[in-house]
Design a protein that fits this description.
Structural class: alpha/beta
Strand content: 15-25%
Helix content: 40-55%
Radius of gyration: 20 Å
Largest sheet: 10 strands, mixed
Number of helices: 12
Number of strands: 15
Mean pLDDT: 93
Shape: globular
């Protein structure tokens, strides 16, 4: 049994595999790591190319596209490695990228997952949208990152070069304990894609596990290789899945208030798309609301289980205010500014 399985989920991504697999193979010592491509029913010759050019890479072949969540659930159910890395096919890794995350996982059984520093492959001075230097979330369920707040992305100047706890780790490059992943239900396959890793991290944080960011491991992510920003399909999945995630995980005393505000915020988002003539994304938001209402009944027992298993109700990496309000109305558009406001409010509470 190898210590770690590096699992790359693929669906018709032959060119990405051809470009980025060499860095993964070169920097993942075979004595501790298996590199595995889990294929979601590709039809572009991906597996034939792997057999010809990368024979050391193990293959898992699925009969159809199960999405990000379902694909990884299928793959990880077959693993016996102590740790698993969920790695996007459009990521270039760097020398020794496995060392610091594995050392953290070895050091504390309560650390369920670790995220490295994720920089933009197209501009390696800047953080990458999907993960940056680790994820936080606001009290209404809106995710953001250290190094990326909504659309504002920072240049890496060493400002996040300290290891710290985070609320969520990006699925673009997520180190996780294989047993914890399986025992706690893995990714929600109904999500298909987008925000499923945040949902998983929220579930595990509420059950007492930790997620940690380490700057000592660095990867470069192309990003947007599957669906571009504001693609209607992506808009639908992000809005629907975020609502499902909030419903599944939000504490009882907060849920109704949050859902009322989210209804208003979602219709404001739809109105913005409508006023700019973006009919497809307008419909995508409305469709997401409809789909959420349809699925909500199915999730009642899921929510009940999550609440019953919750041992941590106050998570430090949750911003206790509205990110949208702070960003658009107060101009707080970087993580240090948001964190400063958080520290100031905590100080005021302690003095009152």
């Amino acid at each position: 049994m190898k210590k770690v399985a590096v699992v790359i989920l693929n669906w018709n991504g032959k060119d990405l595999l051809d470009r980025f697999l060499p860095s993964v193979i070169a920097n993942s010592p075979e004595e501790i790591a298996d590199v595995i491509v889990a294929d979601n029913g590709s039809t572009d010759g991906s597996l034939e190319m792997l057999s010809e050019k990368f024979p050391s890479v193990k293959q898992m072949k699925f009969d159809q596209n199960y999405g990000f969540a379902g694909g990884y659930n299928c793959a990880i159910s077959q693993l016996d490695a102590l740790y698993t890395v969920l790695l996007n096919s459009d990521i270039e890794v760097t020398p020794h990228w496995l060392e610091a995350p594995l050392a953290l996982l070895d050091s504390d059984a309560q650390i369920a997952g670790v995220q490295p520093k994720i920089l933009d492959w197209k501009d390696k001075r800047r953080f990458e949208y999907a993960g940056a230097a680790g994820g936080w979330i606001d009290c209404y369920g809106y995710p953001f990152c250290r190094g990326r707040v909504l659309r504002d992305i920072e240049t890496d100047e060493g400002q996040y070069d300290t290891m710290c706890d985070i609320f969520w780790a990006s699925g673009a490059c997520l180190f996780i304990r294989t047993s914890v992943y399986r025992d706690e239900g893995g990714l929600d396959a109904r999500f298909f894609a987008h925000q499923e890793e945040i949902d998983l991290c929220w579930r595990l944080r509420s059950r007492g596990y930790r997620f940690v960011y380490t700057p000592e491991s660095v990867v470069y992510h192309v990003g947007g290789a599957t669906l571009e920003k504001e693609n209607p399909r992506k808009t639908f999945l992000n809005f629907r899945n975020n609502l499902l995630m909030v419903y599944k995980n939000m504490p009882v005393n907060e849920l109704n208030k949050v859902m009322r505000l989210r209804l208003c915020m979602d219709y404001l988002a739809a109105a913005r798309f409508f006023l700019t003539g973006d009919w497809k994304n307008t419909f995508a938001v409305l469709k997401a609301r409809w789909s959420f209402r349809k699925l909500k009944k199915i999730y009642i027992p899921v929510r009940q289980e999550n609440i019953a298993k919750t041992t941590v109700t106050t998570i430090p990496e949750m911003l206790p205010r509205s990110l949208v309000f702070a960003y658009y109305l107060k101009g707080k558009r970087t993580f240090p500014v948001l964190q400063g406001a958080l520290s100031l409010s905590a100080e005021k509470r302690s003095l009152s």
